[in-house]
Design a protein that fits this description.
The chain contains 1 helix and 11 strands; from the N terminus they run βββαββββββββ. By secondary structure, the protein is mostly beta strands. Strands 2, 4, 5, 6, 9, 10 and 11 form a 7-stranded mixed β-sheet that branches. The longest helix is centred in the N-terminal third of the chain and has 6 residues. The protein starts with a strand and ends with a strand.
């Protein structure tokens, strides 16, 4: 597995979680130039883009998470984070990290009402 996602779990509505995506097999110089994206897939729905961070740090968010989620990157740790605040039941799903043709294994986020 080239991208290792972790940090999912069960949380009540209004709570927070931080997801991590570690590119352990990627050399640091490669990590620095890659764009990373978090996707999620809710039960019975198609996979959707949640947030993207480019090599220079530019970020982009879906309208449904804007203002609540923050994507960031740490080149020293070769890790991309997704800080999720004020979680809602609609945020429930499996979250995947991606960079070009590389995918993480997914981490499950469940938000109870």
């Amino acid at each position: 597995v080239q991208l290792q996602a972790s940090g999912g779990g069960l949380v009540q509505a209004g709570g927070s979680l931080r997801l991590s995506c570690k590119a352990s097999r990627m050399i640091t110089s490669t990590f620095r130039v890659k764009t990373f994206t978090w996707y999620r897939q809710a039960p019975g729905k198609e996979r959707e883009l949640v947030a993207t961070i480019a090599a220079g740090g530019t970020t982009n968010y879906s309208d449904s998470v804007k203002g609540r989620f923050t994507i960031s990157r740490d080149s020293g740790r070769k890790t991309v984070y997704l800080q999720m605040n004020n979680l809602k039941p609609d945020d429930t799903g499996v979250y995947y990290c991606n960079s070009q043709d590389m995918w993480g294994q997914g981490t499950l986020v469940t938000v109870s009402s």
